[in-house]
Amino acid sequence: MNEDAARPRATRPFAPFEWMLSLRYLRARRKEGVISVIAGFSLLGITLGVATLIIVMAVMNGFRTELLDRILGLNGHLVIQPMDSELTDFDVVSERVGQVSGVTLAFPFVEGQVLASSPVAGFGAMVRGMRRDDLRELETIADNVLVGALDDFEPESVVIGSRLAERLGLRVGDAINLISPRGAATPFGTTPRVKAYPIAAIFEIGMSEFDSTYVFMPLQEAQAYFNLGETVSGIEIFIEDPDTVAAFRGPVEAAAERPIFLTDWRQRNVTFFSALEVERNVMFLILTLIVLVAALNIISGLIMLVKDKSHDIAILRTMGATQGAVMRVFFITGASIGVVGTAAGLVLGAVVSWNVEAIRQLISSVTGTELFAPELYYLTQLPAEMHADDVLAVVLMALGLSFLATLYPSWRAARLDPVEALRYE
After folding, report:
1. 21 vs 293, more confident
2. Residue 105: phi, psi to the nearest 5?
3. Of 258, 284, 317, which closes a domain?
4. How many domains does the chain have?
C-alpha cells in the first residue's frame, strides 16, 4: 500500500464539517450546562463591554463637540488685545483683519464684570459690549433668541441669558440693575456705578455658564459704563476652521499693523480640553477591562469544553482529522462568541447613543432626580456623537481579544494525543 495514500489528507480550512462541529458545541446540553453558562456570561460580558465603550466614547465626543461649539460660538477663535498703547483704532484694525482670507468675522468688544440684580435676587454677571450689527452676525446669539428681538438692541437696553432672567425673575421689558465697581472718581475714592437697563431680548444657547452669566450691551454704552473712553477691551476674530487657527497668527498680526497681543482658543482653553481628552482615553482603557474579563471567560469555557470533548477529539483524529482541523473547530467555537457579542454590543451601543437624551429624561422622571445638572456639566442636554474611527477601534479591540482568547484552548485541543485520550475507553 502506498504510504502517501495511507497518510490522512489535510481538510480544506474552515470546511463545512468544522463549522457544523463548532456550532454543535455551542448548543447547550444537559451534561454541558456549566460550559453553556460560561459561554453565555462571556457573550453577555462582551456585549455589555462593547456597548458601554461605544456609549461612553459617543458621550465624550458629544461633550467635546458641544462645548467646543458653544465656547467658540460665543468667544472668538482669535482675540486681539492692545500692547504698548490703548486700542483706540479698533475700527481700522477690525476692517483690515476682516479682509484676511479665511476670516469670517472680526469685531471690537468691551468686557467687564458686574453684579446683576432685581427685586428678587442678585448674581454676578459678565457684561460684553458689542455693536448691534456685530451681535446679529454672531449666530450663536442671533439664532437662539427666545423672547424679544435684536432689532430692539438700542443704546439704553441689554440682551441677557435665559437662566439669568429666570434667576432674577425678569422678562423682556423689565429693568435689570447692573452694579460695577468702576464708577465715578470722587475725592473720597471710586464709587460703584449703578444703572438700570431695560431687557430687549432673552437668549438661550444651551450652555448654562453662558445662559446664566452673560449680558450684552451696546458698545458705546459699555465704553461709557466702564469708563473706557474711546478704547475697547479687544477684537474678536472668527475663522472658517477653528482647527487651523495656528496658520492665521502670522497673517492677522501682519494685518493689524500695530503691536498686539494675540491669543487663540486653544491657549485659552488648553487645560479644559486637555482634561477632556485625558478623561476620554482613561475611560477607554478602564472599560476595555470589561471586554478583557469576558475574553478570559472564553478561555476558561473553551478549556473546559476541550477537557469534556477529549474523547470526541480523539475519535476525530483517528478518523483522519488533522491538528489544524481540530484547532479550527475550537477557534470557531470561541470566536463565534466574540463575533456575536461584539455585533450585539455594537447594535445596543448605537441604539442607546442615538437615544441617550430620551433615556436620561425617562430615568430622571422615574427616579425623580436630575441625572444631568446643567450647573455641573455646563450643557442643558446630554450629548452623544458616534465617530466611525472610535466604533472601529472598539470593534477591532473586542474581536482581537476574543480571537486571542481562543488560541491557547484551540492549540491545546489540537495537541491532544488520541492514544492517551482513548487508553482507558
Report:
1. 293
2. -160, 135
3. 258
4. 2
Q: How far is CA 134 from CA 129, 130, 131, 221, 247, in A?
A: 10, 7, 5, 15, 24
Show the domain range for 287.
13-67+273-421
Q: Residue 151: phi, psi to the nearest 5?
A: -65, -25
* Domain presence at residue 309: yes
Contact yes or no for 158/196 (Cβ under 8 A): no
Residues 395-421: tens digit of each pLDDT: 998 888 888 888 888 887 777 766 665
Asked if residue 251 lies in contact with residue 97, where contact means CB atoms within 8 angstroms, the answer is no
Residues 278 and 225 in one domain: no
Q: Count of alpha carbons within 13 Å of 172, Cβ hemisphere only?
A: 13
- Diameter over CA atoms, the chain: 123
CB-based contact 394:46 (threshold 8 Å)? no
pTM above 0.85, yes or no: no
**DSSP-derived secondary structure for 390-424:** HHHHHHHHHHHHHHHHHHHHHHHHHT--HHHHTTT
Mean pLDDT value across residues 319-348: 82
Examine the domain organization and report whether 162 and 245 are in the same domain: yes
Task: Write out the three cell numbers for 307.
Answer: 477537557
CA 240 to CA 244: how far, in whole Å? 9
Burial 81-109 (b: 16+ CB within 10 A, else e): ebeeeebebbeebbebbbebeebebbbbb
User: Domain check: are 157 and 204 in the same one?
Assistant: yes
State residue 1's pLDDT score: 42
Residues 359 and 390 in one domain: yes
